[in-house]
Amino acid sequence: MTHAKFKSFMPASKEIADSTKFTETLLCISADSKEEIDIMVEAAAKEGGKKDPTTFPEMPGMYGRTFEDLDGHLWELMYMDVEACKAHWEAVSENA
User: Fold this and answer.
1) Distance of CA 76 to the CA centre of its chain
2) Band of pLDDT at residue 26, cut at 50, 70 and 90
3) What fold characterizes domain 23-94?
4) Which residues contact 38 (CB under 8 A, 6 or more apart)?
5) N or C terminus: fewer CB in 10 A for the chain?
6) What are 3-21's pLDDT values in tens digits?
7) CB of 64 within 8 A of CB of 78?
8) DSSP readout, 5-72?
9) pTM for this prediction
């Protein structure tokens, strides 16, 4: 959507935020696999986005990457292997 079209949905008293200077939102999407995340991040980069502007802490059973779109919005893509997470936390609680 062009900025002009987007502005037509807004009240006249408001301006479009410059998300290259301010963070107005962070969007997170769950994915079905690590491979799906990699495909989405590479596709965003191919279209002019910035891949991996931020990094995720490593957590057992979880995988995530980010990209910044052309307007500067940050997108998080996450995959969680539920069984691996359960197994990890069960092992941690048994050793506590």
Assistant:
1) 1
2) confident
3) 2,3-Dihydroxybiphenyl 1,2-Dioxygenase; domain 1 (3.10.180)
4) 65
5) C
6) 888 888 888 888 888 888 8
7) yes
8) HHHTTS-TT-----TTTS---EEEEE-S-HHHHHHHHHHHHHTT-EE-SS-PPP-TTEEEEEEE-TTS
9) 0.74
